[in-house]
Specification:
This protein is of the alpha+beta class and about 180 residues long. The protein contains 3 helices and 6 strands; from the N terminus they run H-E-H-E-E-H-E-E-E. It comes from Ramlibacter henchirensis.
């Protein structure tokens, strides 16, 4: 019986020793704290490549560069507005002075897509060949013009009023002359 008690005490001693050792041992090291997440880096801006202008369509709702003019005279206003829109910085503001550097009358032929087919002078300012060259250059560079959807190909005429400063007005949209 003594032997049984000794075994029981030995078992209890082993258990007690294990409990004591567990209580005395240091706690496991804490889990390392997670480092704060880096702030999100903004993506570089996406630069959009300019898209080429759409092909000229004959629908004025989908393409505002379509003229609904039914006569060359009515088309002349659309063409003048188009030129003013492209050369706004060169338009003479206000009434033109009584003496102008040059006055020229130009005919422009525009095909059904708004391309310039021909430019011809009805009254050329021959004393100012640099003005003639500049006007022709501006007219050709302004293509494509509004497509003359209702009349197809059109030849319109406009008078160029040229100031010595290099600014101009078109007779169609002129503010008058003193």
């Amino acid at each position: 019986m003594k032997k049984a008690i000794a075994m029981r005490l030995g078992g209890w001693s082993a258990i007690s020793a294990a409990v004591l050792l567990a209580a005395c041992s240091s706690a496991p090291p804490p889990a390392p704290e997670a480092a704060p997440a880096p702030a999100p880096v903004a993506a570089p801006p996406v630069l959009e490549t300019p898209k080429p202008p759409p092909a000229v369509a004959e629908d004025p709702i989908t393409n505002p560069r379509v003229s609904q003019a039914t006569t060359p005279r009515a088309y002349r206003r659309d063409a003048a507005t188009h030129l003013y829109g492209l050369h706004g910085g060169r338009i003479y503001k206000g009434r033109m002075p009584p003496l102008l550097y040059a006055v020229g009358v130009l005919q422009v032929e525009v095909d059904r897509n708004g391309s310039v087919k021909e430019v011809s002078w009805m009254r050329a300012p021959k004393h100012a060949p640099e003005v003639m060259a500049e006007i022709e250059k501006m007219v050709r560079a302004a293509a494509p013009y509004p497509a003359p959807a209702k009349i197809g190909r059109v030849t319109y005429t406009d008078t160029w009023l040229w100031h010595k400063s290099g600014r101009f007005q078109l007779d169609t949209l002129t503010e008058g002359q003193d």
